[in-house]
Amino acid sequence: MKKAFVVDFDGTITVQDVGFSIIKQLASEGWEEIGNLWLSKKIGTAKCGKMQWDLIKHDEEYIKSFVGKFPINKGFREFVEEIKKNSYEMIVASDGYDIYINEILKTNGFEGLKVVCNSAKYDNGWKLSFLNTSEECGFCGNCKKRIVDDLKNRGYKVYYIGDGHSDICASKDADVVFAKSFLKQHYENKELPYHNFDNFFDILEYMKKN
């Protein structure tokens, strides 16, 4: 069976949650209250994002410079090489924004990867776009579940790698789940099967045995 890997970005490919760090360090007062509304599911990602990014007065160049300090998780380079060597499908799926995701991938030499995420452009203020939302749900800006389901419909065995709130829905439809942080806690609380990982060397170890 064909294999496909759907990989979250913030806190998964990167060690830290870059999107959250941008808001926490660069947005003006009020961002935390907005974030709490999102955590309690009173607002979705699109509304939360627009409200929080309205509080950021820095332009694109400043954001790109700011994110240059965030490291990639250990083993990701080797993981990508293994994906390419075996001609597996791989999609970076994020509920974050292209402005920093593409910059970090480019800085680390990962240009050319398939990335599905939200978009943020600066034009006298931040303009956000959400092109892969779900009409059924509407909570996430980028519906990762649709990405997983499309791959499964095309005959792939889907491996999901993630750590956060936006990974819960999509990972349920995957065949194999690698989880850390909040996603790991969710799977443990629900007593659902998953594989723990800290970095991509853990995933590579699994791939060698299966």
From TrEMBL:
Residues in the signal sequence: none
Domain of life the protein comes from: Bacteria
Family (UniProt): Belongs to the HAD-like hydrolase superfamily. SerB family.
Record-level Gene Ontology MF annotations: L-phosphoserine phosphatase activity; magnesium ion binding
Keyword Ion transport recorded: no
Database matches in InterPro entries: HAD-like_SerB, HAD-like_sf, HAD_hydro_PyrdxlP_Pase-like, HAD_sf, Pase_PHOSPHO-typ
Biological process per Gene Ontology, one example term: L-serine biosynthetic process
Protein's name in the database: 2,3-diketo-5-methylthio-1-phosphopentane phosphatase
Cofactor(s) the protein requires to work: Mg(2+)
Keyword annotations: Hydrolase, Magnesium, Metal-binding
GO cellular component: a single term: cytoplasm
